[in-house]
Amino acid sequence: MLFLNENDIKKAVTINDVIDAVDSAYRLYEANQFQMPLRMHVSEKENTLLLMPCFTAGAIGTKLVTLFPNNKHVPMLQGIVILNSSETGEVKGILEGSFLTGLRTGAVGGSAVRHLARKDATKLSIIGTGVQGLYQAVAACSQRPITDIYLYNRSPEKLPEFIAQLENWIETTVHLHPMDTVEEAIKNVDIIITSTSSNDPVLPNKKHLLRNKLVIGVGSYQPSMQEFPEALYELTDTILVDTEHAIDESGDLINPLAQGLIKPSSVQKMSTYILSEPKPSLGNTTVFKSTGMALFDVVVANTIYQKAMDKGVGTILSL
């Protein structure tokens, strides 16, 4: 059995490897070549335990994650991914889960940038500068020639640490701009990525600030959470989602559907879009909503495992 911690994962794969794995997962999803129940949520007040198993022909795995948003001195997200042999069921790998989750979620956003952003997109806005915001920025920079990143957080005192971390990941030619308001952070950009746990929209309800942009939301994964404002739904006829279950999981879809702002037919699978030729028109304002799924975790974890084995990375353990 191979154990991979955060440093091992960094040695084994690049962000492009992980984005490629996400795209591979989309192909499995579109072909229905997987078994994946709805994720199990167990909550006590604001704290959550998530259990996410998945079975494919090439990989079997389960992610176990805890999310404690009020943690002060330890990460709010912690967990592991367990990989099993698809031939015998034996545990073949255990991977550190919080870093893998951040990297995988960043890669889902990176895949959206790869397939949806204009080729000449250079300006990016990150709303919510936590762990997820970091990997969203890293992944976006790997897919487009980003020159400027505009950063906003409701707790501005967190921005300096975020900037220091991001500078370790990206080219020094990328300029980082901490902004005082979300309006300033999004007004001149090509791509907006929201990565918060907010229960209320974090983007302004102003069409002119959202029009002609790619808007990616990765933060809202429960019905009580919502990052998108009403104005955004009025600018597009299609919202792309990473999984059909998102329509029952995220307030960014549940609420506008209940309010009649969008129709169920407006919600389309990203996997279908990626594999469609020719590509259907999405209009000038493009929206992608991710809630994540175990299929991503298992395919990404298996990719990391295989590359780690090829490179001799990690620690062999016995149960």
UniProtKB/TrEMBL annotation:
Protein keywords: Lyase
Q: Name one GO molecular function term.
A: ornithine cyclodeaminase activity
Query: Pfam families attached here?
Result: OCD_Mu_crystall (PF02423)
Q: Name one GO cellular component term.
A: cytoplasm
Q: Does the keyword Lyase apply?
A: yes
**What sort of enzyme, by top EC class, is this?**
lyase
* Gene3D superfamilies in the cross-refs: NAD(P)-binding Rossmann-like Domain, ornithine cyclodeaminase, domain 1
Enzyme Commission code:
4.3.1.12
Q: Which PANTHER family match?
A: KETIMINE REDUCTASE MU-CRYSTALLIN
Q: What protein name does the entry list?
A: Ornithine cyclodeaminase
State the species of origin. Oceanobacillus polygoni
